[in-house]
Structure prediction request, 97 residues.
Amino acid sequence: MKLRDVTRTSGMAIMHIWPPQLLVQIGPMTVPPGEGVLKSVKRFGNRLSLTVEHDGQKAWGGVDVQGDQRPSVDAVEKVLKASVGKPIKEIGDLDVA
Prediction:
């Protein structure tokens, strides 16, 4: 399954986990979905915290993976950590088991 095809549920809604929604620390800059380069991945339980660079600015986002979900948070984390330095758009096309 491609990372961009992985979904999770939130109440009755089904949402894609990729590309991540990103927030910037300072200024009016917004990061369009799928833009930027992945700079780091940190895990907090079933949540993966991401740092992305876009136009020389850092932005932060996250990926939530449900505990009983397939692919597992371990599999998603492995793909993302191996993808540090790659464009967000490119990462969405990677296979995750």
